[in-house]
Amino acid sequence: MVDFERLVDRIYEAATVPDLWPSLLTDIAGTVDTEGGSMTTLRSDGASGWDRVSPGLAKRAEERARSDFVKRSIALPRLIAANLARFVADFELFTPEEYAADPLIAKWAIPNNVYHGAATAIHSPTGDLAIVQVFRRLGEPPLHSQTQGRPRSCGGRFGKCAGRPRLASPHSRRAARAASGWSSI
User: Fold this and answer.
1) Strand 129-137 with 88-89, pairing
2) Do residues 10 and 154 lie in contact, with contact meaning Cβ atoms separated by under 8 Å?
């Protein structure tokens, strides 16, 4: 059984120690039996943010960052338009045909042996955006009934963590706020 409170604590820890993100993303992905996870930040001023990925997806993420597949994909605009504080499964945003044809899936995911997934978009008070994604291996089923509750729970808690101070000291909260750009920690 996943200890969601511990995951939330670890999210706050990772805000001050970025090297913790890869293992945390692996554990988040494990809550829904996926290959791995990634977190990408997009700054409100248009500057590039950063990527953190599970170790198993590191090579694939570097390739994704160098490509134009993300810019041509309609996944992010649809995820943002959904405006949900939880993980949203691919089938909630796309028909099967749309998903298979999306450049991110057709040109990056399938060649890298990942396919079905879920994502959440977390808006910070500064206007920055963090996108957390998890992907299943090619050939595995979509995130449906038996796992659907788990990504929703994890995504909801992930999204709420910015409003719930859980770090040990005010100094740690200030450090997390400075490191992450999230003013409500």
Assistant:
1) unpaired
2) no
Q: Which amino acid is at 105?
A: I
Report the CATH number that the domain containing residue 99 is assigned in CATH: 3.30.450.80
SS3 88: strand
Q: Using one digit for the tens of pLDDT, what is the confidence trace for 17-60?
A: 888 999 999 988 888 888 888 888 888 887 767 788 888 777 77
| Cβ neighbours of 49 (radius 10 Å) | 15
Buried b (16+ CB within 10 A) or exposed e, 25-45: bbbbbebbebbbbbbbbbeee
Residue 185 lies in a domain: no
In this structure, which amino acid lies at residue 74? I
Cβ atoms of 14 and 7 closer than 8 Å: no
| Exposed / middle / buried, residue 161 (Cβ in 10 Å: 0-12, 13-18, 19+) | buried
Residues shown for the chain? 185
Q: Do 119 and 102 touch, CB atoms closer than 8 A?
A: no
Which domain range does residue 111 map to? 4-180
Structure letter (DSSP) for residue 116? E
Other beta carbons less than 10 A from residue 69's beta carbon: 19
Number of structural domains (the chain) is 1
- pLDDT tens per residue across span 132-184: 989 899 999 988 644 544 544 444 444 444 333 333 333 344 444 444 443 33
Answer whether residue 139 is part of any domain: yes
